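P.,

For your records, the input lines for the assembly:
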Amino acid sequence: MNTLTVLASGASGASEDVFTPPGLELFDYPPLIAGVSWFTKPVLLALLSTLIVVIFCWSAFAKPKLVPRGVQNVGEMGYMFVRDQVARPFLGKDADRWMGLLLSIFFMVWIWNLMGVIPIIQFPVASHIAFPIVLAISIYVLKIYLGIKHQGPIGYFKNMMFPPGLPKPIYVLLAPIEFLSNLIIAPFTHAVRLFANMFAGHIILAFFSLVGFWFVFEHLTPLGVGLGVVGVVMTIAMTAFEMFIQFLQAFLFAMLAAMYIGNSLHADH
Amino acid sequence: MNTAATLLAAEGNNPLIPHAYELVVGIFSFAVVLIVVGRILTPRIQKTLADRTDAIEGGIKKAEDAQAEAQSVLNQYRDKLQEARQEAARLRDEAREQGAQIKAEFQEEAKAEAQRIIAAAHAQIEADKQQALTQLRAEIGRLSTDLAGRIVGESLEDEARQRRIVDRFLAELENDAAVR
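Structure tokens returned:
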């Protein structure tokens, strides 16, 4: 199934009571239904997240009232946050036009991430890089399309690589750097930043909870119990911190998307 | 280490290599959210927010209009009140003037009437007096002759007789007066 688990179990065959920190096997799931190889827990959670986002937004925005009630209030808070903190600072008067995309991205990424701290589920969807990649590539394609559409095929690359107002020799250095950073590194970091944060966060939570579980419940020893308590306390603290990071990463992902779109719409930003 | 990495990659376990089926599910999920949330729902909430802004601004505008109207009505009312006060003052002055005039006229008339009545009374009195005098004069003459005739007719024998005649005469006179 998994090399590390196999290795670990192979090793632990000799000494059962050795603490083994969690590794990459955390992110490896077998199919939920035997024979349907694609239907794993991350896939299920991705579909579940989609359902949650759609249902939440539907109940909040499907029949919006002038005087908001119930879920609409919560939904509007999310909308206002994305509009005022993400869309408007980067898109200005174009903000409303792109709110649909940015709102979808923000809610989706946030729910993906939240899956990491929901009891029993406890797996951040974005820690499988395929999901951030889908969003990042979508934004990347959109960014290039908008850039060429609004600045012209030559103008887009010219504005990107040769921003006006710099001494000539600088361009020798700047042009390749800008090209590299905008067209190759940007989509990669866009996806990897979200992925890596969720990936690392999941490992940290798993590690501390395993420390707590191992030293307090499974192998209670006078020496180990202190460590176990630290593990439990850290698990709680890191869960709170993780929730903050999950929100922050969703915000950042949407913000970067807005920034890329804004840069493509207007050359000098 | 190297072998472990290749082993992981071979098993499709490298966290940096996306699973193909997850890409498909990701694209599907994103498309669904984008269509439902981005295409269908976002315009609705945007419209509602715009309507809300309009409603609030409209409400403020309406309130301002109402206030302006109230102010103008108040001004009109004040003007009218002022006008009415002036009108009332004018009417009062007029009435007072008229009253005074009427009073003066009445006084004049009454005075004239009184004068007339007094004059008439004077004339009446004068006439009565004249009549009385005339009557008296005739009476006195007749009486005098009457008396003188009697005195003379009785041939004036004695003083006592004369006195009786005079007394009788006077008594007759008195009787006459009493009868009358």
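Two observations worth noting. Residues 215 and 224 of chain A are 5 Å apart (CA to CA). Chain A touches chain B through 46 residues (CB under 8 Å).

Regards
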